[in-house]
Design goal:
The protein has about 100 residues and is mainly alpha-helical. The chain is built from four helices and no strands.
Length: about 100
């Protein structure tokens, strides 16, 4: 019975993570819709930093400096994320988002 209970806890935990991921995808896509950006996979669609920069630009109306629009190497993706983090720090932006 203890194994069954632990298995059920794991299943509920995984289901909860999936639901949170889906809610985050919906939230991101709702804000990115005006720019015709659609995120379908959080890991793949956010890794370059482009969609994160666009999202922060939309939410903060801050105007983003230039960034690598078509990063092909890891260094360019890191540059984009550095630009993103600098923007967040510069504007003292802290987004607490209720995605539920």
């Amino acid at each position: 019975q203890k194994k069954t209970r632990n298995s059920l806890k794991r299943i509920f935990f995984i289901i909860n993570l999936f639901m949170e991921k889906q809610a985050l995808l919906r939230w991101c896509n709702m804000h990115l819709a005006n720019r015709e950006i659609i995120i379908t996979n959080l890991k793949k669609d956010l890794v370059s930093g482009i969609n994160l920069i666009e999202l922060v630009d939309i939410l903060s109306d801050s105007g983003v400096e230039s960034y690598h629009e078509n990063p092909t190497i890891v260094a360019q993706k890191i540059d984009n994320l550095t630009i993103l983090f600098n923007l967040l720090a510069e504007k003292n932006l802290n987004f607490n988002v209720d995605i539920g």
